[in-house]
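Exercise 3.2. Students should predict the tertiary structure of the chain below and write it as structure tokens, then compare their answer with the key that follows.

Predict this chain's 3D structure.
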Amino acid sequence: MGSTSEREYREKLNKINENLNKRARNIRKDFAKIEKMKVEALKKSEDARRSAERDLDKMEGKITKSKDLVPESKKRLRSEILVLRNEIKQEYVELKTQISQTLIPA
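Answer key:
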């Protein structure tokens, strides 16, 4: 009377399988959320890059049109803008790489 029947073992196996499937679904949902966050982060970094480049373009145009700045000042400012553009590109590439590599096993 105290021994476990085959049916009881099967029920326990089914419960274990259901539990495993439930956990797997939850993990897949978590990965989907992570992927969504990665896409959003990429969009934000792209928007930040575009915004900064637009601002630099506007400033560069104003510097070019300015009659108050001497040519040496314009040259120095353009040089600083070029440096800043390169920094923006580098930062964007680093962010994009970091986001893309998130959760990729080494």
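Discussion points: Residues 52 and 84 are 9 Å apart (CA to CA). The two ends are 54 Å apart (CA to CA).
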